[in-house]
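Re: export button greyed out
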Amino acid sequence: MNRRDFLKTAVVTGISLAVPGSENPLTGILEAAETADLAVAHGVSPAGITKAAIDGLGGMRRFISRGDVVVVKPNIGWDRTPEYAATTNPEVVSTIVKLCYNAGAKKVKVFDRSVADPRRTYKQSGLLDAVSSAGGDISYVDERKFREMKLHGLAISSWPIYTEVIEADKIINVPIAKNHGLSILTLGMKNWMGMMGGSRGRIHQKIDKSLVDVSMLIKPNLIVLDAVRILTANGPQGGNLADVRQLNTIVAGTDQVAVDAYGATLFGLKGSDLGYVVAGHEAGLGSMNLTKLRIRKINI
Amino acid sequence: MLHKLRIASQGLFLLIFLWLFLQTESKGADELGYPVKIFLDADPLAVLATILSSHNWYKTFYIAILMVFITVVLGRIFCGWVCPLGTLNNLVGSLNKKRRIVPKAGWYRFKYLILLFLLTASLLSLQVTGFIDPISLLIRSLSLAVYPGLSYGLSVAFDTVYQINVPFLTGVSESIYTGLKKLLLPFQQPYFYQSFVIGVLFLLILGANLVEKRFWCKYLCPLGALLGLLSRFALLGREVSEGCNSCGACLNDCQGAADPEKKEKWKKAECLVCMNCDDICPQEAVQFGFLKMKSAPMDLGKRRIVGSILAGLVVAPLMHISPIKRLGVSYPKLIRPPGALDEKQFLTKCIKCGECMKVCITNGLQPAFLEGGIEGIWSPVLVPQVGYCEYRCTLCGQVCPTGAIQKLKLSEKSKVKIGTAMIDKGRCLPHAHATPCIVCQEVCPTAKKAIWLERTTVKKRNGEELIVNQPHVDLEQCVGCGICEAKCPVLGKPAIYVINIGESRSKDNQLLL
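Workaround output, generated via the alternate export path:
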C-alpha cells in the first residue's frame, strides 16, 4: 500500500464510519470485522489477500498504534527459495511491514533464528530483499540477545528467549503452514521456536507442552498464517515441488490456538489432531472450537 | 622516485589481496561474485607443482603463464612489487633497525634446493608444495589463524563492554562493533583445529625479519626461487657506472640477497627489483634498464642439487606406504568436501591453501591432521560436529584454485554423496530411551528425506507404553551432509554420525551393490 492508497482508504473509512447507514460496502465489512475471530482471505495476489485478511479483522490500526516498535516474525528457517514453501512468503511479509508503517509504527523489526545458515536462508527465501525494500529492519539474530527467562510451564521451566521480541511493543507472528515429522504440522505456535536460543532440539521430547509454554510467554497481537503455498510432505524443509500446494490463502487472527486449529483444516485435518492445539486449548491459551468462532471469509 | 612507486604498488596489491580475502565469505547468494583465488591462479609455483603431481592440465594456467612472461622480462618484480607476503615481510622488516646488513653467505641457495625438492616430489605425485608456497601459506595462515584470532580478540573486547553496559560508552562501542562487523569481521566467529600451530609458524616467518629483513624472501621462499630462475636472464637489468666508489650504501638497502655492491658480479636472480640501490646511491651510479645483462653466474653446487633431488625421490614413497592408503583401513571420518576428487587425485592437487575452509559457510571444513597421511596435513576435512555441509552451498568448489574440489552446479551438488549417516541405536533417544525426538529427520535436507521415521510402540521403565518415531537412514537418499550429526541433541557423541563410506568420488569405498 502506498501513501496515496492509504490516505484514500483512511478517508473512505472515516466517512463511512461517520455516516450512519451509509451504503458504502466497507461499512459492512468493518462492522462484521470488529467481531470476527478469524479472517480467511483467498485470492491470487499474496499482498492483496494479506491486506484483505487483516482488514477483515478491522485493519492494521486495530493492532498497531503510532510510535510502536513492532516485531514481525516470519519463518526464515531453511535455505529454500519461496516456491518450495519452506519459508514464509516474502510478499506477505513485506505487505505486513508496509501496513505497520502505514498504521504509524516507528520501527518494524524482522528476524528469525534459522536452522540452516542465516545468510543463505535470509537471502534465498527472498525475505532479506523484500523486507529491506519495504523499509523493514531485517537483522540476523544476535546470539548475545538471548536471555534465560522463567516460563514455569508444563514442560519447560526456563529457556533463553530472544529479548528483542519480549521488548517489542507489538508482535506479529507470520508463520507458513507446513507438514512436520513430529508435530504433524508446523503453524503459528511452532514458529516461536525461532525465538528460542540454546539447544532447542531438545524440546522435541515434549513438543506439545513445550510449544504451549513458549506461546504463553510470547503473545502475539496478530497472527497471519501464510497458506499462499503449503508444504504437504517432507516438511518442514521440503525440497520437492510436488509436495507444494498453491492455496492462495491467508488466515489472520488473534487467538494462537484458533489460527492453528483453522490451519489444520487446510491440510484436511482437525485442530484436535494436533497435540499442541489440544494442549493449548486445555491450558487456556485459546480456543480450538472453530464452530464457536466467527470466521469471516473473503474472496478477492 | 622509483621506490615510492614500488611502495604504492605493494600497498595497492596488499589491499586488493586483503579485500579479496574478506570477500571469501558467503553473503547468502549462490556465487561469491569476486575472483577471490586470483593470486593463487597467478602463482606459477602452485600451478607447476600441481600439474606435475597430478599429471593433469590446469584450467586457469594462462594467468600463471602471464606471470612467467612478466618475470622473464622484468625479473622478480612480483616479489618486490606485488607479493602480499613479501609486503608483510617488508613491513615487519621496517622494525628492524640494524644498520649494517650482511646477507648470510650462501644461504640464498636454500630456497633453490627447497624448490628442487618440491618439484621432484611433485613428479612422484607428492603434493607438498602448498605447505610453503608463499601465497598458499599466507591465505592459510590468515584464514585459519590470524583472522579468527583477530575476530575473537575484538569480540571479547566489545562483548565485555556490552555485558557491563556502561551508559553512553556501550552505545558508542556497539556502533563501532556494528561497523566493524560490516566491514572487517567475519559473519560468525570461525574456529579451527591447529590454529595455534599455523599461527605460530606464520609469526615465526614474520619474526625472522627481525633477524634479517625479508629473511623468508631471501632464503626460503620456493616461489621466489622459481621466479629467480626465470629472471636469471631477464631483459630488465642493472648497471653500475664508473662513478661508484664502493661505499656500500646499496648493500644496506637491498631487499634481496643480490650483492648489489659487487657491480657486474651482482646476483640478478636474487634481485627483487625494489629499486632501492638506484634511489639510494649517493653517486647516482646505479641504473636499471633493459638489456643490461651482466651479472654473476648462478652456482648452487652440484652435490646440493643432487642431494635435494634425492631427498625428493626418497620422501615420496616413504609417505605413500602408510596402511591408511589402503581401502577399508582409511580413517572413516575422512569426509572430504563435495566435489573433491578421488582421494589419490585429491591429494596430488590440494595445496592446503585454506580457501575452502575460509569460505565454508558452517565452519565445518577443518584442516586435517594425520587423517589423510602426512601429505594430507591441513587438507580440508568435514567435521560435522563443528559444522555440516549446507545442502545448497557450492562455495568450496568455487574457490578451490587447483580443482582438487570440483566446482559443482546446484543440480549436481544435490546428487553428490560425501558419506553416509549411521544411527547409533544405543544412544538414540527414541531407539534406546523411549523418548520422542525427530531432529535428524526434521533437518534432513534431501528432497525425499533420507531419514524416515517408523512409528513404534516402546515401553517405559514403569511398563507404560509410548508411541515414538524411530529414525532410520535410507542409504540411497543420504548424501552424508552431516546436518543430522550437527543437530543431534545427544551432544558430545551424537546418536547419528557420518562416515565417508558411499562417497561418490570413490569407486571402491562403497556399501551398496
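The longest strand of chain A covers residues 222-231. The button fix ships in the next patch.
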